[in-house]
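Handout for the seminar on molecular recognition.
Each group receives one record of this type.
Step one: identify the two inputs.
Step two: read the structure output and locate the region that could contact nickel (II) ion.
Step three: write two sentences on what you found, then compare them with the reference statements printed after the record.
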Amino acid sequence: MLLRIPALLSPTALAACRKLIDQADWADGKLTAGLQSARVKNNRQLPEDDVAANAARAIVIAALGKSALFMTGALPKKTYPPLFNRYDGAANAFGSHIDNAVRTSVVSGSWVRTDLSATLFLSDPASYDGGELVIEGSFGTQEVKLAAGDLILYPASSRHQVMPVTRGTRLACFFWIESMVREDARRQLLFDLDMAILSLRSAVPEGQPEPDEVVKLTGCYHNLLRMWADT
Ligand code: NI
């Protein structure tokens, strides 16, 4: 499933993040590329142990922890410490590839199976041309170019690319999530059920018990999660 999380970063958090990374020391994006993706990767990244990247990463991690939509959509078990990339000038695109299945970070030293890929857009889309994240899925190809502060979650099993940036600068944060529920179809089902329950619950007047059907559906959600979750 493709899940957009609008305004993951508040305007204040976004400004703080941009202040940290705008003047940082950008390096060749091939730093973290696998053998196949290195051939098509032409962008820049902040080194994982960069001081500015560390501070900006803390802002993103705090925002993720406060996002109910991220928690219910990703059901995160482990999150790869977020990285930052930059597309502009001669280093402006990332051709079609699939992200490595398992990654280890120099920051955390721990392995993460990449069930979900995430891109957090950090530049105003009007400030650059191109730079769409193009994701191939079973229902066709999606082009994603979101407002600064918005996050997109997509299955890491999807082939994807970043189109050439022909004007301006595209800054983004990207990372991967190992989910408690490994299969995308199961996560989708749990997410749909959770959203439907929330909607039913919101219609129950304050102070009144929830109808028996809502209690039963909530039980179904938790019992499915209990069956499928690997913590
Ligand atoms: Ni990728």
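Reference statements: The pocket of nickel (II) ion is lined by residues 97, 99, 160 (CB under 6 Å). The chain has two domains: 3-179, 184-228.
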